[in-house]
# Entry
Amino acid sequence: MGARDLRETIEKQFDKLYYDLSLKFDKTNPDRIHATEATGCTRLAYYERKDPLPPDNAAKTSTLLINGMRKALGNVHGEYRVDSLVIGVDADMTIANDFVVRIEVVGELPEVPHPRHMMYLNACLFALDKDEGFVIYMTADGRTAEFVVTKNNKMFEEVVRRARVLGTLLKENKIPMVEPSELCVGCKYFERCYSRKKYDEDESGDILAEIFGKRKKRRE
# Structure
């Protein structure tokens, strides 16, 4: 077997592992919304269903590491029904049959939990009929930070509202509005939401000269 064939074989196995460990739910039914979609960027969720871009190697590696860990922990699935709408969740584990746990792998430990993580865990509490849970942040070097989340009706009502909005937009084939956040910079759909043009050094110099030239004239 040549080096090229070996590489292709490895890549195929890598892709198979990625898709086996990817979060699976019915993306063809707009009345079934996963809590990750309702608590994250609605526009991202829409594109992932309607016109998805293939993941790059960095995204595949991240999914393999994080979802592989989630699968090892047990990955408890649950659903919450509101009329015809079904909201799905996947918690990492339950402790003593009372507490729901969700682990988030991060570069740096946060001082407070991220709102979307709190909203997601709160949705897990409703879907799994629990009153309290923990968001555990973990870094690559093993440092952790834990935060308690208690069941909150208003927070869950917002998840239901966002899920309904996404479902309606999917049915009507309407792209959601842009939701600016710190996640936009690394998003694979960045250029669909924001137009950008990279200027070369000469063009940048002309722009700066024009800006500062105008200021100089005004001062004179």
Notes: Helices lie at 3-21, 35-39, 42-50, 57-73, 115-127, 153-172, 190-193, 201-219. The beta strands are 32-34, 76-82, 85-91, 93-95, 99-105, 132-138, 144-150. The chain has one domain: 3-219.
